[in-house]
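The methods section describes the discrete structure representation at length, but only in general terms. What matters is that the chain and its backbone geometry are given together, residue for residue. Nothing conveys this as quickly as seeing an actual entry. For illustration, here is how one protein appears when written out as sequence plus structure tokens:
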Amino acid sequence: MNKEITLKDIEKVSAKQGDLSLKEMGVRQNGIVSSCIDENEAAKLQNVFSVEVPAGDITNQQKSGRCWMFAGLNVLRAALFKKLNVKSIELSQAYLQFYDKLEKANFALERAIELVHEPIGSRLNAYILDNGVADGGHWAMFTSLVKKYGVVPSSAMKDTAVSKNTAELNVVLQRIVANDIKVFHDMAESGKTEEDMRKKKDGMLEEVYRVLAIALGVPPKTFVLEYKDKDDKFVRLPEMTGLEFFRDYIGVNLDDWISLSDAHVNGWEKGTKRACHYVGNVEGGDPVLFFDVNTAAIRKAVVASLKGGNIVWFAADVSASSLRSRGLLGGKLIRDDLLFQTKDKLSKGEQLDYHTTYCNHAMAFTGVNLVNGRPNRYKVENSWGKDNGDGGFFVADAEWFDSYVYQVLVNKKYLPAELVEEYEKAPIVDGEPFDGLWNALD
């Protein structure tokens, strides 16, 4: 074929296709996905599991990119069920959301100060401008918030119209931060120092705080929790702060959770923890880390955690081979390859390298079905409300798990000692935030 497509080229290609009328009629009427669902595969995704951990009531992130926060709070609240003798309790996402936005504004401004002598159109500056105060996040960003601010029950700080639908707030915050970054560049041109810029930053963050206070409400400094337990007994807990509530009633060591990833992207150095200076929220908080292991180690870690009664936070490409309304995630569920007679030639890591997939959503594994000790499907707690899946819960098969799960967070007590030792000794290698693994989960 020549450099350009000619009409003769099109005629040759058309002549090779044969009769496509039957497929064309189905796809044009029903759409691509609905025309290539393998119902035999769907039938295998039964919502029954040999190992299951109580997860409580399903939550709903609404029209916000807070999946990473919802999944994290769902992991933590499981500790409350036994402590408070309740079937379910919801922790306030709005409380952490307030501080997340405030911390992200500070984080973005700090990165902007570091980059102030680069052109505003540089790739890193563009990344900060586009992503600095967006909703998405990672597990380590969640733990950084909890360690600094604790958690409160949803009764102490409820969602607002803005917290549930963040598009308008994000526009306002992005505009404010962009204006502030322009101020830094003007200051740099006039010879001002980083210290001068940080003094200016104090007033900038006051403006961000005011916007958040109006849109989300001011987080409570203290609260009193009253509730009925499983025995219908009324309980009133003493007044406490969010940090005291986390310490006294959840009481887990968040440093015990280890990030295991299964994403062999180009340039990844085995035996290292991958980090990125430009991805985060709390300045000086926990770094977002990925430690690459093989798929079998990921499977074993998830099963061990669930057998031990602990649900597992994970990050994946939820848009791949999935049916949202039915709550099904299957490796061969959507057969567009058969429909269009195509073949995927990329490995799991290469799909991230070439941007055909990306890590885009966080959820929690709450169950697994074992056949001769090997998992064939998993129960998934999502944060899309009760109207998707089976009352909000999804089912993922083993092939989907192997293909599209990129990161799990597991307490180190469920991991082999040699793996923990390897993780703890591994050096941290810092990189740039441009491959699909660093995509903010929302």
